[in-house]
Input
Amino acid sequence: MRRGSVLEGVSIAYETWGEPNEARDNGVMLFTGLSPSAHAASSPQDQSPGWWEEMVGPGRPIDSNRFYVICINSLGSCFGSTGPASTNPKTGEPYRLDFPILTIEDIAHGGYETLKALGLESLRAVAGSSMGGMTALAFTMVYPQVSSGLLDISAAARARPFAIALRSLQREMIRKDSKWQEGNYPPGDGPIAGMRLARKLGMITYRSAEEWLHRFGRERIPEERRSGDAFCIDFEIESYLEAHANKFIGQFDANCYLYLSRAMDLFDVADHGGSLASGLDKVGAKKILVVGVESDFLFPVAQQQELAQGLDRNGRSVQFARLGSIQGHDSFLVDMDSFRPVVADFFNTV
Amino acid sequence: MRRGSVLEGVSIAYETWGEPNEARDNGVMLFTGLSPSAHAASSPQDQSPGWWEEMVGPGRPIDSNRFYVICINSLGSCFGSTGPASTNPKTGEPYRLDFPILTIEDIAHGGYETLKALGLESLRAVAGSSMGGMTALAFTMVYPQVSSGLLDISAAARARPFAIALRSLQREMIRKDSKWQEGNYPPGDGPIAGMRLARKLGMITYRSAEEWLHRFGRERIPEERRSGDAFCIDFEIESYLEAHANKFIGQFDANCYLYLSRAMDLFDVADHGGSLASGLDKVGAKKILVVGVESDFLFPVAQQQELAQGLDRNGRSVQFARLGSIQGHDSFLVDMDSFRPVVADFFNTV
Output
């Protein structure tokens, strides 16, 4: 692990779409945001829709007829890859807080080892959004020979203090829930109240004020859905957040959330050589698309612009797409009409 | 109370600067944001600096040599005015959640009764920032004959869903703290953990990402200030939020916070006649200054612009000042160099 300590017997969960070609050089690796699993899209093995269903598959922008697409469940997550909720082989108990400090570079490392295990030596592109965009960037810095392309969406070369403040507060919500028990909650009986608050704050930062103004305005929930408690849900926007929180809790392990959230704060390209420029100099990808969204206030578009400008040297071909989607940071998950053509154009050229 | 129920034996705490003139027509009434007391500035009676120290006093922009300045502690607050923490004369216990639903109009009513008790019938201006700006607006709608001027800073004609979402989450943080006890915590032993989280989220929404980028960047706290706990404070921005939270908790009653926060969500000028336009038609003030700040994302500048445009009819003189301060919603408390001249210009003409 980058910050010291060794993990043994690591598993990395992944899913694939398409087949490797004979030269085994048609791979595309996808890294995810904080919370999704490796199930980016449906497949014959798992027909449920994935988190990027419209983007990955036969004839889709990341075309599995052309590419061998591999999506990685992040090291530190809880959907098959080794993380704080996994059993520590030394103790037979979950790692919990004995899990070593996790960095974005460690997650990229998990992707690299998976690639080797699949018998591939190169990639056409490494891609990711949000935390996944940080991971894709780390991947091509740390393994510069592997991928000729980079698609980096709604991410950043380093976390800024505003985003750190929000994530730090989300972690505090979880840690201050008495059921967290300093990380030692029994499996399946974690700090649900804290996770609910953290998820609601997440949703607030993942969307945009403009979207909600159009979508909810000051609409109230109908009388029959009111609990009657003091300070109960009154506005539709409150009900929307409640529904999202209900969907999330129980699915995601609290300690895994803490580790992954912290990894985003710690990420800084400047750790690779002392400055943003020296870090970006190490990037191996030559064909690059950076995408940002104007209404994103968690990873503001100035950060994607900074990244694109910093990468645009050393003979690289760098495109920057600034999208007007109003759904904020989450636009890449929901505004498919804006993202589909941009992503398709990029993959037509790699 | 606007939403029904009656409060008996109400107290409204206030402070004053300057003296009423002979005609008793030089009054200026200040309403506050959610958390301050009526102590806007130092005075011979209380020499500690107030929350708007540079703005109120002899020779200052709201000049107590000219005006009789009255600052009102909001009904529902806990700094002298009757609120959920006050004793209910019917039970001898604090009101707690038996306090009736509080609206911004009720707070304005508290100001109006104070004015009458002071023997004044008119005001040169009613002024306020944030929640206080909502209250000043409500005042001049509900008592249109009283004040000829209105200064409305970083406020809005109604809450939008993004701000409602944030405040709703802050309230949930408090309500989910087991020490809240459905509002029945013993005085002095309230939901401190929840209040701490709510205050941190408050600070995040009161300032701006840009300010923190310049001020903190990715600076770390020195080794000797680290607790060594898992997920302990690491970045300076985390330490800043912690210091603000420590200052706040203990000072402010949790139930009062819940009532005042909810009052902001409920406020809607359109409740006065069915539409924004019909509500603003009722505004009695003729000389109006609306101020907004570009970096404010809690009360975005589009809301002040909407307010100024909506008021600019019926022969009123309406000015709109759009300030470039980078301190977000809190700019009126900290960016005195931008606010001082704007406020002084307004009071030179009322």
Summary: Residues 55 and 190 of chain A are 34 Å apart (CA to CA). The radius of gyration of chain A is 20 Å. Chain A touches chain B through 49 residues (CB under 8 Å). Chain A has two domains: 14-159+267-349, 163-257.
